[in-house]
Write a structure and sequence with these properties.
- The complex is a heterodimer of chains A (about 350) and B (about 400).
- By secondary structure, chain A is α+β, with helices and mostly antiparallel strands.
- Chain A has two domains: about 180 residues, Acyl-CoA dehydrogenase/oxidase, N-terminal domain (Butyryl-Coa Dehydrogenase, subunit A, domain 1, Orthogonal Bundle); about 160 residues, Butyryl-CoA Dehydrogenase, subunit A, domain 3 (Up-down Bundle), CATH 1.20.140.10.
- Chain A contains eleven helices and nine strands.
- In chain A, the strands form three sheets. Chain A has a four-stranded mixed sheet, covered by helices on one side. A three-stranded antiparallel sheet of chain A has the order 2-6-5, with no helix packed on it.
- Chain B has about 400 residues and is of the alpha+beta class.
- Helices cover about 45% and strands about 15% of the residues of chain B.
- In chain B, the strands form two sheets. Chain B has a four-stranded mixed sheet with strand order 1-4-5-8. Chain B has a four-stranded antiparallel sheet with strand order 2-3-7-6, with no helix packed on it.
- Chain B is globular.
- Classes of the chains: A alpha+beta (about 350), B alpha+beta (about 400).
- At the A-B interface, helix 7, strand 9, helix 8, helix 9 and helix 11 of A face helix 1, helix 3, helix 7, helix 8 and helix 9 of B.
- The structure holds flavin-adenine dinucleotide (FAD).
- Flavin-adenine dinucleotide binds next to strand 1, strand 3 and helix 11 of chain B.
C-alpha cells in the first residue's frame, strides 16, 4: 500500500509542465481561437515528440507503454495550461479502446501513427452521454458507438455540423453517419471509454482549479483597495481557502480513480464518477470564486481568467455531466446498481474485499 | 502507487478484527462524559492495553506494538467497524503522547507514556483560557519559577473530560515580561495537586464533562516541563499538527457514519416513498466525501512514511472532516423528521436498526463542536490563505 507517485512520474509531469509553459502560453490558446480549425497540427507533432499522444500506446507500436497513473499527472498539466488540443479523446480514450478492440490490423494502422503525432482520433461517448463528438473536424479516424458495437469510420464518409461552444477551445460537432458491417470493428465496454474520458476530464479539472486559484491569489496580492491589497481582506481569503479545500480533496479521488482505471478494478466506474463529480465541482466553484475575487476586470473578454472559467464549465459537461455521474454514484452506493466499496473501511456484516 | 494491502497488512487486519470481535462490549458503554461512563471507558482501555492494542504505532516499551501509520489506519478501520467505544484518553494518546515522543526526555517518556497507554492516567488539554481562545498567544495563566518548582496561577477553560481527568497538559506564561507566543512554557500538572480546583461545565448536551480549572499557587516540579522554558509555543504547535493533521479524527470514523447514513436513507426511503429526491444525492455525496477524506489520509500517511512532514495542510483536513460531519448529521436528522427530536433515552419508535434517532441527535450536537474545537474553521481558513496560498497578512 503506497499512495505516492514515483520520481519518474513526477519528472514526466514536470517535463510536460515546462513544455506547455514554453509552447502553450495563454496567448497561444487565444491565437488558436482565431484560426479556422482551432487546432495546430504542428503543435500536435511537438506534443508527440515528448510522448503525450502515445503515452498509453504499447511500446511495440511506438508508444511509451505507460498507464493512466502516468497519464493523470500529464493531463493535470494540460488543464493547467488550458491546452486546446484533443488529448482526451486521442490519448486517453482512443488508444486504450483500440487496444481493447483487439483488431490487430486496426491497431497496426493507427497506434503507431497516433504515437508519432500523425493521427488524431475522435471518439463518440454515446447518446446517453452527449450528442456531440469533439474534434471530429480534425480527426483522421472516428470511433463511434452504435448498438453495443464500435465502428471505425472514415471522416470522409460522414457529414459534420459544427456546434459553436461557449468555450472557444471546444470544437463540437454533430455527426451524420451510417453504421454498416464495413465500419463495425468489434464490441467494447462502453462504460470503459466513458470512464477513461471522465477520468481525463477530472484530471484536467485539477489543473484548471489550481490555475484559477493561483491567478486569483496573484491578483488579490497586487490589486489594492482602501490602501491595502484586497487579498488581506478576510472575506477574500476565506473564499480562496474554500477553493483550496475543494481542489485538494478532489485530487485524492482523481489519483485513486487513475489507479482504478489503470488496474481495471471492480469499482472502477464508481471511483471515476466520484473523481469527475468532485473535481468538476471544485473547478467550477473555483471559477465562480475567481471571478468574484477579480471583480469587473474578470468579467471582460480581454482578461485571461475566462479561458479557465470556460474550461472548467466545458469539462464539467464532457464525458458525463456532474448530474450523470452523481446519479451513477447514488445508484451504486444506495441501490447497489454498480460495485462501490469504501477504501479500507468496511461496514459490519459486509466482508471487506481489498480495495483493488 | 500501489493501492493494495500487502499480505502482512491483511494479516494484521485479520488479527485486529478477531480480537475486537471477541472483546468489544456487546452493549454500548454509557457516555464517557459521565462519572460512571468515564470509569467504564477506562475499564475498556485497560482491556485494550492488556491486549496490546491501546496505541498500535507506539513502541512496545511504552505499551504499543511498534506498528507503522498504515497499520494504525487499518486498526482504526477495524475499530470503527467493530463499533468499539470512544477513546476516553484521546487527548493523551493522540495529542500529548506523540509530543512527548518527539520532545520528551527519556525519563518523561518512561514516566508518562505507559500509564497514558493504559489510561491509568487520563489527560486533559489546557490551552484555552477565558481570554485566549482563537487568540491562543494571549495566554495569561502564569508559571513562575521558584527553585525547582513552577508556581501556577490563573485559569484554563473548556478542558474536555477535565471533570474526571487525572492530569492536565497546558501552556503557561513563565516570563512575566513576555507577550504573545514568547515566554510560554509547556507543563504537565496533576489535577489533584494542592492549589488546583476543577469546576465542571455542562456542555450543549447537558453533560458536565468539560471543565474550567483554577490555579492558585499550585506547585509543579521543574521535571514536569516538556521542552525548554519559554519554548512552549513551539512544543504546542507540534501537538496542533498531530491533532488537526492526522490522529484526532481518523477517516474510518466518517466512513462509518457515511455507511450508517446510507442505511438510514434506505430504511427511510422504503418507508416513505414521497421522500425528497434531493436527499438521495446529498447522502451519496457524503459517502463520496468520506472516501475523499480517507484517500487523502492514505496519501498523507504515504508521504510521511517516505520521510515527509505534516504542515499547514493539516488545516485543510480539519475544515473538511468537521464540515462533513455536520453535513452528515444534518441530513440524518432531516431523514428522521419528527423522530429527530428524540433523545437517546426515548423508548424506540422504530427509528431503525442503524442506531436510534437519539444517537444521530447526540452525534449532531457533538458534530457542531467540530468547527470550533482544535482551532476554529475560520482560523484554519486564515492559515490556509496565508501559509498555503501566500495571501498577505495585512
Ligand atoms: C467541545 C469542545 C471541546 C473543547 N476542548 C478543549 C480542550 O480540551 N482544551 C482546550 O484548551 N480547549 C478546548 N476547547 C476550546 C476551543 O479550543 C476553543 O473554543 C476555540 O479555540 C475557540 O475559542 P473561543 O471559544 O474562545 O472562541 P473565540 O476565539 O472567541 O471565537 C469566536 C468566533 O470568532 C471567530 N474568530 C476569532 N478570531 C478570529 C479571527 N482572527 N478571524 C476570523 N474569525 C475569528 C471564531 O472563528 C469564532 O467563530 C474546546 C471547545 C469545544 C467546543
Amino acid at each position: 500500500m503506497e499512495f505516492l507517485f514515483s520520481e519518474d512520474q513526477r519528472m514526466l509531469q514536470k517535463t510536460v509542465r515546462d513544455f506547455l509553459e514554453g509552447e502553450c502560453p495563454v496567448e497561444a490558446v487565444r491565437a488558436r481561437w482565431e484560426t479556422e480549425s482551432g487546432r495546430s497540427l504542428e503543435f500536435w507533432k511537438k506534443l508527440a515528440e515528448i510522448g503525450v499522444p502515445g503515452l498509453l500506446v504499447p511500446e511495440a507500436h511506438g508508444g511509451l507503454g505507460m498507464d493512466e497513473l502516468d497519464l493523470v499527472l500529464v493531463l493535470e498539466e494540460c488543464g493547467r495550461a488550458a491546452l486546446p488540443e484533443p488529448v482526451i479523446a486521442t490519448a486517453a480514450v482512443a488508444v486504450p479502446l483500440l487496444c481493447e478492440l483487439g483488431d490487430t490490423e486496426l491497431q497496426e494502422a493507427w497506434l503507431p501513427r497516433i504515437a508519432a503525432g500523425d493521427a488524431i482520433v475522435a471518439v463518440g461517448a454515446g447518446s446517453s452521454i452527449s450528442p456531440f463528438v469533439a474534434d471530429a473536424h480534425v480527426a483522421d479516424l472516428l470511433l463511434l458507438p452504435d448498438g453495443g458495437a464500435i465502428h471505425a469510420v472514415d471522416p470522409a464518409a460522414v457529414s459534420l455540423t459544427a456546434q459553436p461552444a461557449n468555450d472557444p477551445s471546444q470544437k463540437l460537432f454533430t455527426v451524420d453517419w451510417t453504421p454498416g458491417p464495413g465500419t463495425r470493428v468489434g464490441t467494447a465496454d462502453d462504460a470503459a471509454s466513458i470512464d477513461r474520458g471522465a477520468l481525463a476530464c477530472a484530471a484536467q479539472q485539477l489543473g484548471v482549479g489550481d490555475r484559477l486559484i493561483e491567478m486569483s491569489v496573484a491578483y488579490a496580492t497586487q490589486r489594492k483597495q482602501f490602501g491595502v491589497p484586497i487579498g488581506s481582506f478576510q472575506a477574500v481569503k476565506h473564499q480562496l481557502a474554500n477553493c483550496a479545500v475543494k481542489v485538494e480533496y478532489a485530487r485524492s479521488l482523481v489519483y485513486r480513480a487513475a489507479h482504478s482505471v489503470a488496474r481495471a478494478t471492480r469499482c472502477r466506474s464508481v471511483d471515476v464518477s466520484m473523481a469527475k463529480a468532485q473535481a468538476s465541482q471544485a473547478a467550477v466553484f473555483a471559477a465562480k470564486t475567481a471571478l468574484q475575487v477579480h471583480g469587473a476586470i474578470g468579467y471582460t473578454w480581454e482578461q485571461d481568467l475566462h479561458v479557465w472559467m470556460r474550461r472548467a464549465w466545458s469539462l464539467e459537461r464532457a464525458w458525463g455531466s456532474s448530474t450523470w455521474h452523481r446519479r451513477r454514484i447514488a445508484d451504486a452506493v444506495i441501490d447497489g446498481a454498480l460495485p462501490a466499496e469504501s477504501f479500507g473501511y468496511s461496514a459490519p456484516g459486509a466482508p471487506r474485499a481489498a480495495p483493488a | 502507487m500501489e493501492l493494495v494491502y500487502t499480505p502482512q497488512q491483511e494479516a494484521f487486519r485479520k488479527e485486529v478484527r478477531a480480537w475486537l470481535e471477541a472483546n468489544v462490549p456487546a452493549e454500548p458503554l454509557s457516555s464517557f462524559d459521565t462519572a460512571d461512563g468515564f470509569e467504564a471507558h477506562r475499564g475498556w482501555e485497560k482491556k485494550l492495553h492488556a491486549g496490546g492494542w491501546a496505541m498500535v504505532p507506539w513502541p512496545v516499551e511504552y505499551g504499543g506494538r511498534g506498528a507503522d501509520l498504515l497499520e494504525w489506519l487499518i486498526f482504526e478501520e477495524e475499530y470503527y467497524r467493530a463499533g468499539a467505544p470512544g477513546r476516553v484518553n484521546q487527548n493523551g494518546i493522540f495529542l500529548l503522547g506523540p509530543t512527548i515522543m518527539e520532545v520528551g526526555t527519556p525519563g518523561q517518556k518512561a514516566r508518562y507514556l505507559p500509564k497514558m497507554a493504559s489510561s491509568e492516567e487520563v489527560w486533559a488539554q489546557g490551552w484555552s483560557e477565558p481570554n485566549a481562545g482563537s487568540d491562543m498567544a494571549n495566554i495569561q495563566a502564569t508559571a513562575f519559577r521558584d527553585g525547582d518548582h513552577y508556581v501556577l496561577n490563573g485559569q484554563k477553560t473548556w478542558a474536555s473530560r477535565g471533570a474526571y481527568a487525572h492530569w492536565l497538559f497546558g501552556m503557561f506564561r513563565s516570563d512575566p515580561d513576555s507577550s504573545r507566543h514568547h515566554g510560554l512554557t509547556f507543563l504537565l500538572a496533576p489535577l489533584d495537586a494542592p492549589g488546583i480546583t476543577v469546576r465542571p461545565i455542562q456542555k450543549l448536551n447537558g453533560k458536565a464533562a468539560f471543565a474550567e480549572i483554577f490555579f492558585d499557587d499550585a506547585r509543579v516540579p521543574v521535571e514536569n516541563r516538556l521542552g525548554e522554558e519559554g519554548e512552549g509555543w513551539k512544543v504546542a504547535m507540534a501537538t496542533a499538527g498531530f491533532e488537526r493533521g492526522l490522529m484526532l479524527r481518523s477517516p474510518a470514523r466518517f466512513q462509518s457514519t457515511a455507511h450508517k447514513l446510507v442505511a438510514l436513507y434506505r430504511e427511510t426511503a422504503a418507508r416513505e416513498p414521497a421522500l425528497d429526491p434531493g436527499l438521495r444525492e446529498r447522502v451519496a455525496t457524503c459517502w463520496v466525501e468520506a472516501e475523499a477524506y480517507a484517500l487523502n489520509t492514505y496519501q498523507t500517511v504515504s508521504r510521511l512514511l517516505a520521510g515527509g512532514r505534516i504542515g499547514a495542510e493539516a488545516s485543510l483536513n480539519k475544515i473538511f472532516w468537521s464540515e462533513l460531519d455536520v453535513a452528515m448529521h444534518e441530513i440524518a436528522l432531516e431523514l428522521l423528521g419528527p423522530r429527530g427530536e428524540l433523545l437517546a433515552s426515548a423508548p424506540a419508535l422504530g427509528a431503525g436498526g442503524v442506531g436510534g434517532a437519539g444517537d444521530w441527535l447526540d452525534g449532531y450536537l457533538f458534530a457542531l463542536s467540530g468547527p470550533i474545537y482544535a482551532g476554529t474553521n475560520e482560523i484554519q481558513r486564515n492559515i490556509i490563505a496565508e501559509r498555503i496560498l501566500g495571501l498577505p497578512r495585512k
